[in-house]
Automatic annotation (TrEMBL):
Stored PROSITE patterns: TRANSKETOLASE_1
Alphabetized UniProt keyword annotations: Metal-binding, Thiamine pyrophosphate, Transferase
Region called Disordered, residue ranges: 251-273
Needed cofactors: thiamine diphosphate
Similarity remark: Belongs to the transketolase family.
Ranges of Basic and acidic residues composition bias in the record: 262-273
Record-linked InterPro entries: THDP-binding, Transketolase_CS, Transketolase_N
Organism in which the protein naturally occurs: Caproiciproducens faecalis
Protein name in UniProt: Transketolase
Length: 273
């Protein structure tokens, strides 16, 4: 897959956001806020780092990606569709009965999806298992995963992080979509997470903190920092929930709400580019 330069990636991210809005509005169901906030994280990962081939999605030597925050599937589908893993005409079938593009990613149905996710906290454990398997087989695979910050309230996340450090999984990169909001309010209101950088460092991760996780250059620079031998990597990205749509930005109500036809049109108008 040909790598894109930063300006091309900025344009791509705009298209991904349009795809997300179209999918969710078409289904009248879905999660726009957290899908929009992670666009740059996922686009940079797939388009500048991962060894994947849309024509050979099951290549055993490919890199792996796990969307731990599975409700943000519209962003995942947008990236895979734009890369050519499946026909973008499928976008109109998002969340429809018998569609391959269900509300959470299904590895048995969607080419390019490496793990079925949706139960929060479990995806990072899957990613740790994949990275451990690659290490045991002395394989070339690198493993990437994106977690929501509200998801970090799940204890299983920290068990997985303990294992990642214990087994010295320097082939694992976890990214935190730290937009500060979750379905019931702010993270601090629901269950305060404390100093996440210090927390991940205490669990044995090499942490790279991004002041603006929606700035593609910052994300690429962080991804390209070589892993320290024996240490898993964490990219702690401060992002904006609903990024790219002014009336959705930093609004908790857009966690799992579909835009109306008028709101869809207004969002797409903002993203003409």
């Amino acid at each position: 897959m040909k790598k894109l330069d930063n300006q091309q990636l900025v344009s791509l991210c705009m298209q991904l956001r349009r795809d997300i809005i179209e999918m969710i509005a078409g289904a009248a169901s879905g999660h726009p806020g957290g899908s929009l906030s992670m666009v740059e994280l996922l686009a940079a990962t797939y388009y500048t780092q991962m060894r994947v081939d849309p024509k050979n999605p099951d290549d055993p030597d490919r890199d792996r990606f796990v969307l731990s925050k599975g409700h943000a599937a519209p962003c995942y589908y947008a990236v895979l569709g734009e890369m050519g893993f499946f026909d973008k005409a499928e976008f109109k079938n998002f969340r429809q009965l018998h569609s391959i593009l269900q509300g959470h990613p299904d590895a048995k149905k969607v080419p390019g999806v490496d793990a079925s996710t949706g139960s929060l906290g479990q995806g990072v454990s899957i990613a740790v298992g994949m990275a451990l398997g690659a290490k045991a087989a002395k394989g070339p695979q690198k493993v990437y995963t994106i977690l929501g910050d509200g998801e970090l309230q799940e204890g299983q996340v920290w068990e997985a992080c303990t294992a990642a450090a214990h087994y010295k999984l320097d082939n694992l990169t976890i990214m935190i979509d730290n937009n500060g909001l979750q379905i019931d309010g702010t993270n601090d209101q629901v269950m305060a997470l404390g100093n996440l950088r210090s927390r991940f460092e205490a669990f044995g991760f090499d942490v790279i903190e991004l002041a603006d996780g929606n700035e593609i250059g910052q994300v690429i620079d962080a991804l390209e920092i070589p892993a320290r031998p024996g240490k898993p990597k964490c990219i702690l990205a401060h992002t904006v929930k609903g990024k790219g749509v002014s009336f959705m930005e930093n609004q908790v109500g857009w966690h799992g709400k579909s835009p109306s036809p008028a709101e869809r049109d207004a969002a797409l108008e903002e993203m003409k580019g």
